């Protein structure tokens, strides 16, 4: 018996609306819209507004600020996947004469290049991009503040460089590459570089009085790849699904997963957060979120995805400060994940099995440490300790035999079955570690050999 749970329960929907309403009221935002996607589709949206009868919906554009950086990172990863650049390439190889050409593409993606956080004055978010017509104007006289590759230091100019890198390698403008390579394939018709009605106006709310002031909406010029875009809750939910699952028309699942992997060590004392290749990483209440926050004068925005739960959420508000949209979006994910936890697919046996592979499953010993080798449905294997703490890892099958580690200590390491002359399996070799069927069995391929007297009591 199967059941459909596409729609949220009324109690869950009320809890979501309550969270949005509290955020708009306590954050004193002119308007706030939230939306939730689950298992690949938007399942809820709701909003609150200070103007009766004019509440926004999930098709109303807001400026999304630094969420733009995720789009720019996807464009760069596409160039990598096409073989047009390597993440280890120095910037100089593709974009010469910047003055910071020794930093690598990967360092720029993960904010590990050591670049300054902002461009020189005047503040780029409230002034037109025409005031910074060249990369030299964006970078200033002292663009590098920290040693490259040593740690995380968020940099808006770094993403200006990545946008210019895309233009140099692709031969089209950043905006054109964005439109043809991401927005059109994913159907993000309401994500644009300039506002398209219906869109919210940006406001500053006085910190000590309930009054407002309109904020300017500047074209950021060269800084656009760091924060230019406008989008809607509906479009961002679709983009969130892409960040969780990938899409071969844009970027495959493996490359999207690579973006979600920490790229540089987090700042000291910030062990609950991190940064991948263009995406922020957050660990809160036992749940891992990936996505990005964003802000520009008049707007704050956040997109979070819990890949494990299959739930994503977006929160957008048109206020310079006040509503804590990062917390709101995380709470929207949590509400759905806890009220309606994901129902697993029913267990089914494999349609067929390789008998030689099946014979490798079961207990193996690294010295006296007991491990179990389990066959996975995709042809890979999992090696995990049978008790206590240890190095658990998943492995993907290699075309020529053996497996490559996907996570943890054994990521990138090769696991293979070593056979005797008669074809029987002698042991498993994992990056020179020997796993045998018995602990220190005489005659087995144990490095250093086994004491001739064998096991003994006191």
Describe it for me?
This protein is of the alpha+beta class and 458 residues long. It is built from eleven helices and 19 strands. The strands form four sheets. It has an eight-stranded antiparallel beta sheet with strand order 12-13-14-15-16-17-18-19, with no helix packed on it. A seven-stranded antiparallel beta sheet has the order 2-1-11-10-9-8-7, with helices on both faces. A hairpin with a 2-residue loop joins strand 18 and strand 19.
Question: Which helices and strands occur, and which strands form pairs?
Answer:
Elements: H1 10-27, E1 31-38, E2 41-49, E3 62-63, H2 68-81, H3 105-109, H4 135-139, H5 156-170, H6 174-186, E4 203-205, E5 212-214, H7 224-227, E6 230-231, H8 233-245, H9 253-259, E7 273-275, E8 280-284, E9 287-296, E10 299-306, E11 311-317, H10 325-339, H11 355-358, E12 362-366, E13 369-375, E14 381-385, E15 393-397, E16 403-405, E17 414-419, E18 425-430, E19 433-435
Antiparallel strand pairs: 1-2, 1-11, 3-6, 4-5, 7-8, 8-9, 9-10, 10-11, 12-13, 13-14, 14-15, 15-16, 16-17, 17-18, 18-19
Helix pairs in contact: 1-10, 2-5, 2-6
């Amino acid at each position: 018996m199967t059941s459909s749970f596409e729609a949220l329960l009324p109690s869950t929907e009320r809890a979501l609306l309550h969270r949005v309403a509290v955020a708009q009221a306590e954050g004193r935002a002119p308007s706030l819209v939230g939306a939730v996607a689950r298992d690949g589709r938007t399942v809820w949206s709701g909003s609150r507004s200070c103007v009766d009868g004019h509440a926004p919906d999930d098709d109303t554009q807001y400026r999304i600020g630094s969420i733009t950086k995720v789009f720019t990172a996807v464009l760069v990863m596409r160039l990598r996947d096409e073989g047009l650049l390597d993440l280890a390439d120095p910037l100089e190889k593709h974009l010469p004469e910047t003055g910071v050409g020794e930093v690598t593409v990967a360092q720029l993606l993960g904010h590990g290049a050591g670049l300054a956080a902002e461009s020189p004055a005047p503040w780029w978010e409230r002034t037109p991009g025409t005031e910074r017509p060249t990369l030299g104007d964006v970078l200033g006289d002292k663009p590098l503040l920290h040693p490259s590759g040593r740690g995380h230091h968020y940099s808006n100019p770094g993403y200006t460089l990545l946008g210019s890198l895309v233009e140099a390698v692709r031969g089209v403008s950043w905006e054109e590459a964005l439109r043809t390579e991401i927005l059109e394939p994913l159907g993000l018709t309401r994500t644009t570089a300039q506002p398209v009605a219906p869109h919210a106006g940006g406001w500053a709310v006085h910190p000590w009085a309930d009054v407002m002031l309109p904020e300017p909406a500047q074209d950021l010029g060269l800084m656009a790849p760091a924060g230019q875009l406008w989008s809607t809750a509906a479009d961002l939910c679709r983009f969130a699904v892409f960040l969780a699952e990938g899409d071969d028309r844009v970027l495959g699942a493996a490359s999207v997963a690579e973006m979600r992997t920490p790229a540089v060590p987090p700042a000291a004392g910030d062990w609950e957060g991190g940064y991948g290749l263009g995406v922020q990483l957050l660990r809160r209440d036992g749940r891992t979120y990936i996505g990005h926050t964003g802000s520009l004068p008049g707007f704050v925005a956040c997109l979070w995805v819990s890949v494990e739960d299959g739930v994503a959420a977006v929160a957008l508000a048109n206020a310079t400060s006040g509503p804590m949209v990062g917390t709101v979006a995380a709470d929207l994910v949590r509400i759905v994940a806890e009220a309606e936890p994901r129902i697993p697919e029913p267990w089914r046996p494999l349609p067929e099995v390789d008998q030689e592979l099946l014979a490798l499953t079961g207990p193996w010993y690294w010295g006296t440490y007991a491990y179990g080798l389990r066959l996975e449905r995709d042809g890979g294997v999992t090696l995990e300790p049978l008790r206590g703490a240890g190095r658990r890892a998943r492995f993907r099958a290699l075309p020529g035999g053996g497996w490559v580690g996907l996570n943890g200590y054994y990521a990138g390491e090769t696991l293979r079955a070593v056979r005797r002359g008669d074809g029987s399996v002698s042991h498993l070799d994992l990056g020179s570690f020997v796993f045998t069927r018995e602990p220190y069995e005489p005659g087995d391929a144990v490095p250093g050999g086994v004491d001739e007297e064998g096991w003994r009591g006191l």
